[in-house]
What does this fold into?
Amino acid sequence: MKRSEINRAIQDASNHFAAHGWTLPPEPAWDVTDFGLGDFAKSGLVLVNLAAEPEYCEKLMFARRDQQTPAHCHRQKKEDIIARWGTLAVQVWKAHPAESGDAAFELQINGRKQQVRSGDTVRLPAGHRVTLTPGVYHAFWPETEACIIGEVSTANDDLHDNYFVDPDIGRFPELVEDEPALVRLVSDR
It folds into this structure.
């Protein structure tokens, strides 16, 4: 990704956070990714680490319509994905999508266990959440023009606990420094 594209994405997310009453901490830890696919408008996500402790993590994320976070799972991390503003679609699979067919499984949505099938899409209007346990594959995208997304999870290890369906996907993009950085990214540290 070009640094100029990252700078624009951060500014866009910042404007949306401010417009919808989300105040960031004094020194937010920014992360912007195109998942190494080279098409941020199609596969992209802006993340802000709000808390990163040994036992828990909290993030605020931003995506525009047509930006998808590709299908992946975590083997260690348990997480709640929360629509904070806008409507978020979350597609879920009990196991790797190529192996799970349409198997039924239990998923916690808004604190209540519900039966879903592999490949189902759960729609989360603002304030709603889905709890994803280790091994549950998921992909998500906004169904509204934009979406502010929350994540509260157990300890997060972006380097070793992201298992994407597409093996060519990477968590952090390669950077092309075409202009000065607006902020330092988590991957810059």
